[in-house]
Amino acid sequence: MIEKNFSNAHPKVLCVIGYPIEHSMSPIMQNAAISELNLNYVYLAFNILPINLNLAVKGFKVFNITGINVAHPFKQKILKYLDDIDPIAQKIGAVNTIKNDDGYLTGKNTDAEGGIQALLDAGYTISGKNILLLGAGGAARALTYVLAKEAKKIIVVNRTKKKAINLANEIKIFFDIKIEGKEYHNSVLKDESEKADILINTTPIGMYPNISKSPIPIEFLHKDLLVYDIVYNPLETKLLKDATQKGCKSLGGLDMLVNQGALAFEWWTNKKPNSSVMKKKIIEFLGNK
Ligand SMILES: NC(=O)c1ccc[n+]([C@@H]2O[C@H](COP(=O)([O-])OP(=O)(O)OC[C@H]3O[C@@H](n4cnc5c(N)ncnc54)[C@H](OP(=O)(O)O)[C@@H]3O)[C@@H](O)[C@H]2O)c1
């Protein structure tokens, strides 16, 4: 006789929200981690129209969704709906992970730790380095906050110059570091890349489907530059290909993605996921696209 386990028919729900969300690899890696640990959870992706964010938050409570990842364009907008925000996420001003305890929503930022850990695990150091960071959105905020603890100097370059300046000014409140916000212009990119040890791309330029684009002309790359592109789809972006061609060391966004997801998973489930399995599933998926 088949024994019926009714609790297994009602898994706890985890999800990611974003707009658009089709490109997200989170369902693939999180469901791989769930199945490897044989947990009674399921991870879904929801495309949420920006005007419906408030309804989505009510939905988390009504449907008792245990954990939520927050993707573009909600990482900053979500803050006002949360009951509690971890102090680091508060300083960063962006949340990418929420835990729902019986309707009480707490927000964290795992992009910061996940992104920096990827650099360190690859054997690179930040201490004393000059960093050129492209973009001033949610991911840029998270990375700048952790980089500022150790870097010598950070130049934030952004299409909307004001956002780069604001981010630099906010970081100065917390850290005694040389940091400036500048406009995203070829003359700035040329000057600043020459002086930089590490170039970090946090813009979506080069992301699928616009894979022939790079956020910086190849001629501005030099062999002493470490190029870190946090875009993970495709696994090897045009920027990373250009970096290899110019003899630069480079790192893609996959490890950051897995790290931030693994940190979220552990917070929600109290179980450490197998990061290698998560990474393997994404490589299989993106490799087969
Ligand atoms: N590997 C990972 O784990 C990971 C984690 C988070 C994010 N990401 C990736 O990082 C990228 C950014 O994510 P986000 O959450 O930070 O997004 P976001 O908050 O929307 O910020 C995007 C930034 O890129 C700039 N930008 C967008 N399109 C541009 C263009 N065509 N030319 C110049 N600048 C442009 C924006 O400038 P404006 O201020 O002028 O709009 C903004 O500063 C995405 O590709 C995302 O997939 C990867």
Short summary of the structure?
Helix 4 (110-121) packs across helix 9 and helix 9 (254-269) packs across helix 10 (275-287). Helix content is 38%, strand content 20%. The protein is of the alpha/beta class.
Notes on the structure:
This protein is α/β, with parallel strands linked by helices. The protein folds into two domains: 6-108 and 255-287, Rossmann fold (3-Layer(aba) Sandwich), CATH 3.40.50; 112-252, Rossmann fold, CATH 3.40.50.720. 38% of the residues lie in helices and 20% in strands. The protein is built from ten helices and twelve strands. The chain has helices at residues 26-37, 53-62, 87-92, 110-121, 138-147, 161-174, 186-195, 238-245, 254-269, 275-287; strands spanning 12-18, 41-47, 67-70, 84-85, 97-101, 104-108, 130-134, 153-158, 178-183, 198-201, 226-229, 249-251. The strands form two sheets. The protein has a six-stranded mixed sheet. It has a six-stranded parallel sheet with strand order 9-8-7-10-11-12, with helices on both faces. Helix 4 crosses helix 5 and helix 9 (254-269) crosses helix 10 (275-287). The mean pLDDT is 95. The structure holds NADP nicotinamide-adenine-dinucleotide phosphate. The site of NADP nicotinamide-adenine-dinucleotide phosphate has 27 residues, from helix 5 and helix 9.
